[in-house]
Amino acid sequence: MEMPAPDARIMAKKAKLVSRLQQVLPKDAVIHDEFETRAYECDALTAYKCPPLCAVLPSSTEEVAAVLKICHEEGVPVVPRGSGTSLAGGALPTADCVILGVAKLSAVLETNYDDRYIRVQTGRTNLSVTGAVEENDFFYAPDPSSQLACAIAGNIAMNSGGAHCLKYGVTTNNLLGVTMVQMDGTIVEIGGAYLDAAGYDLLGIICGSEGQMGVVTEATLRILRKPEGARPVLMGFDDNEVAGACVADIIKAGVLPVAIEFMDRPVIRATEAFAGAGYPDCEALLIVEVEGSPQEIDDQLAKIMDIARKHNPVELRESTSAEESAKIWLGRKSAFGAMGQINDYMCLDGTIPVSELPYVLKRIGELSKQYGLDVGNVFHAGDGNMHPLILFNANKEGDLELCEAMGADILRLCVEVGGCLTGEHGVGIEKRDLMFDQFAPEDLEAQMKVKDVFDPKWLLNPAKVFPLSATETRRAG
Ligand SMILES: Cc1cc2nc3c(=O)[nH]c(=O)nc-3n(C[C@H](O)[C@H](O)[C@H](O)COP(=O)(O)OP(=O)(O)OC[C@H]3O[C@@H](n4cnc5c(N)ncnc54)[C@H](O)[C@@H]3O)c2cc1C
């Protein structure tokens, strides 16, 4: 879906803007050639594309501040960008915007093992944060499947999670402080290198605010000691709903595995063909992992296997070696890529109470029949964070629209059962127009008043998160 081209008025602004930006950044850090800006026309929600007016790649917080000050004075919208892996269109440009990429801000600024934190520039990729501390047996817990590519900047903006967040929490539970540049160029420090800073919990507002409050350039992250050991177990079932019920029972029993991941038959088959992880051929598969000392692992797994046996699994296989564990996880981490090899798909992200898993899986199956579109399910079941992948044909007229309509129905179902529109991917442009299904107008108004404070002209990441009509009214005002 192409977005409208910029109008003449906007193009006239471009020359002046580029010349001002080149006064504060090296020339090659201002990308304004029509073809080169195409590299920034979309993120991982590739159904939506729109080249920006230009893109900038600053190398320091001060350069970010200088860019924002100019854009603020010129009234030009700014879309912050990390690695562009958002599945919600969070980093999608508008035709009149500057893309502000933080990829060059990737340094480690400080590591402190006594107080267990690391301070990094936010363009650093998620996995390389652990890479910087693993030599000393530490790690950074939030582990999105995209962790090789996605940046801490995007993780903070989307409050990202991952397979191991069942035990360790998502980004907000592992973020201690940020340096953020406001739209007018003011640099502010929020939080610190300690828990629960004094004053309002502004960090809680910034984390998950989808690039709407400021551009985060530095972050202080909690790091943890690596556990003594970890062991996953594979559980196969001949029914999706039964697997869902098993997850609900494990959580209800009060055992806390580090991860409970779910895959259904379409995903198991695609993943097996792609990664050869040795998964059994069954309707639904769970990967349940526990951590601790060998004794702790044995005790927790004994309880979990007892619960699983009550649900008549067709396979119950405990990993017996580090190689086997790595292979089990390789399959899960390759699942999205494997599905992408066989079909176009739209990846949804909604959260539900875990006890509703069996019902929601059944309803997704019914919706799949109603719309005539297949669905693959692969998700963080322990947190109730669902990722139905709706398969469609991008070259078939009307298929994308059908897929979007079915996706909206699934997300409404999540809200209906007491869950919410997003678990970890954010609202972006994808779920913007469903926000009234989740929030009453006065609830949304309260959230928009927060944006009014941080970005009174509504120039930062426009047309995202809040329904378009609300966004437009705000900017006009
Ligand atoms: C194959 C695949 C698997 C994925 N798996 C997971 C998963 O398991 N868990 C999960 O949570 N997500 C997952 N994602 C989604 C995505 O990787 C995350 O949302 C990630 O945090 C985005 O990071 P990014 O650096 O790519 O951000 P971008 O896509 O560049 O931007 C995302 C948002 O952050 C804002 N932003 C970027 N930089 C800044 C900044 N400096 N200051 C303020 N705002 C900023 C942008 O404006 C945008 O709104 C997956 C994506 C893919 C493609």
TrEMBL record:
Gene Ontology MF annotations: FAD binding; oxidoreductase activity
Xref: SUPFAM superfamilies: FAD-binding/transporter-associated domain-like, FAD-linked oxidases, C-terminal domain
InterPro entries named among the record's database cross-references: FAD-bd_oxidored_4_C, FAD-bd_PCMH, FAD-bd_PCMH-like_sf, FAD-bd_PCMH_sub2, FAD-linked_Oxase-like_C, FAD-linked_OxidoTrans_Type4, Oxid_FAD_bind_N, Vanillyl_alc_oxidase_C-sub2
Transmembrane segments: none
Keywords: FAD, Flavoprotein, Oxidoreductase
PROSITE patterns found in the cross-reference section: FAD_PCMH
Pfam assignment, any one: FAD-oxidase_C
Positions of the FAD-binding PCMH-type domain: 48-226
Cofactors: FAD
Name recorded for this polypeptide: Glycolate oxidase
